[in-house]
Amino acid sequence: MSSPASPGQAPPLGSTAVLKQRWSEVTFLHWKVDPALVAPYMPAGCSPDVIDGSTWVGLIAFQMSKSSFFGGPSIPWLGDFPEVNVRLYSIDGRGRRGVVFRSLEASHLIPVLVARAAFGLKYQWAAMKLEKHDGKVAYLTKRHGQPGASSHLIVRPVQEPAANLGLAADPVSTFLTSRWGFHESHLGHTIYCRNHHEPWPLQHAEVVYLNDGLLAAAGFEGLADRAPDSVLYAAEVTTVFAAPQKRNRTR
């Protein structure tokens, strides 16, 4: 959970880093929703995290690269690919805030299988592409065997520093992006896995195009039919993960 004095700054990881990754060209689309809409998807012991009476559903797209384990060299074939995920916002009985992934699209099959087995994460194998052109960033994904679970997103990040100056102190932007762990149901338990990275270099962004089926496939039919309530972008951060912390109660 982030420090009250510096909400955008990650607290110390608390244990040895087991995985390191770079996340770049990160786009955050978010829709404000009633907490009752996401409550059925919370792992045991968790509830929707709320700000100003609402919680949020996120569609997050980025490029993952430079993955390495236990301080070793990066392994390009294992951890260099685009990812698009649908995520929710959680808090557990110990006050630990995190995210809950409804789905995660990745174009490499081996990491998909490893993440599903090791953490119970809902990774899906997909054909994916990320491109940058004329100040815009485009993400395209189509899940293998489920063509309706696809997304085509194009955004234009706002480059004027003055326009982005207030984002670091904005409570909603901090709530949506400064999340230092994930909750997941795995083998009948709820696990919590911590991460740490530098503060997000957030920018506003404009949605140029969105045709999305991932939100509906994740249980949120019709949500993509309205414009997102928040659109943010970040050039890159380097992230480290600790091993999952002690497991909570079973279901």
Automatic annotation (TrEMBL):
Which Pfam family, just one, is annotated for this protein?
A: DUF2071
Q: Which InterPro entries match?
A: ADC_dom_sf (IPR023375), DUF2071 (IPR018644)
Q: What is this protein called?
A: DUF2071 domain-containing protein
